[in-house]
Amino acid sequence: MAKKWLVILAMCATLAASCAKAGGESAVQDGAKGQYRGDLHNTGVFEVSGLPELTGEKWRMQLGGKTNSSPVLAGETLYIGDEAGAFYALNADDGSEIWTFQAQGGIRSSAFVAGGYVYFLDGKSNLYALDTREGKQAWSVELDNQFAEKNKDYWDYYYSSAAVAGDTLYLGSEGSLFYAIDRKDGSVIWSYALGSTVHGKPVVTEDQVYAADNQGKVTALDRKTGELVWSVTHGSIHGGLAYKDGVLYYGSRDQYVYATDANTGKQLWSYRSPSGSWLGSSAAVSEEYVTIGSSDAKVVHIFKRLGGEHHLDFRLPSRVFGSPSIAGKIAYFGSAYTDNSLGIDAFYAIDLESGQELWRFDGTKAPILSSPAIGDGVVYYASQDGFVYALH
Description:
Elements (H helix, E strand, L loop, with lengths): L1 H27 L28 E6 L9 E3 L2 E5 L4 E6 L5 E6 L9 E3 L2 E5 L4 E6 L5 E6 L20 E3 L2 E4 L5 E6 L5 E6 L9 E2 L3 E5 L4 E6 L5 E6 L8 E3 L2 E5 L4 E6 L5 E6 L11 E2 L3 E5 L5 E6 L5 E6 L9 E3 L2 E5 L10 E7 L5 E9 L7 E3 L2 E5 L4 E5 L1
Antiparallel strand pairs: 1-32, 2-3, 3-4, 4-5, 6-7, 7-8, 8-9, 10-11, 11-12, 12-13, 14-15, 15-16, 16-17, 18-19, 19-20, 20-21, 22-23, 23-24, 24-25, 26-27, 27-28, 28-29, 30-31, 31-32
């Protein structure tokens, strides 16, 4: 009998350990259906059917100003902010306005939806938490804003977007401080001083959080304490990091695409984009491919994820600053020739294996700096013409 009870106790202990581990993973994946770049690893991959064939425009909704931020789809609602500081909740089916909220500064960050609240940052470094049903402010907190009115860079189009894991929110600011914030009340759990602003969305894993700043430093911090684990420096990084199977993927203004070991910071491979091209886009990372846009090279680079072999380039007449999104074997992205209104910008869907253009939507013409959100049979994006578009 004693042996029997010992066996039962051992099984219970094993189950408890498994549940604790599973609970940790669950906490990391909190809110995964309502966030910029699709998940906490920023892969840009959406587990939906996507839009293999284009019928046309489903709807368009005019905002109060142009926008650089990306729409975030959570359930039947689309969330996005604009340069005039208005933040919107839209009906994803027809584009009708559900509610709006006026922030104190322009909005170039993209939202995170979790636990009935939506979180975003404005250009004055104010972080907001709004109730998703009515758009009422639950709290706001002013973060480090020492660079908010300084060092303006014409080619830097974004502010930091938040990542939420469990009850903790991680993001950069319009200063040098990177934060872990209690999402229930906006209180600071810890902060870490970097060399510059973080304008991408951080990557969150089980034990660490990773951020890239505008001086080109990629930093790994302990999630719980904010203590430095490692850092490496490249050229300026304006996009976010993407993570898969222990590897970080990202581009830089130094003209290179990088794959870096997330545990050690060791460079695994790199690729130089031709024509002295910046890589301001964030990478999209599927099981097979790494996809990233370039500026002056006017190509979207596609690499084999395992080994980093250059697979192919998709050439187009304009630049790509917004980050591609992937559903199945298809990458979706818009182009942005921002220093001249040439009317050459469009939204594309390409086959990742062949590089073939499946379709393009030319109805926008204005630069597209946002990254698309993808649903079943519909794709959403915003443009500098001040409209949010839904294609089906």
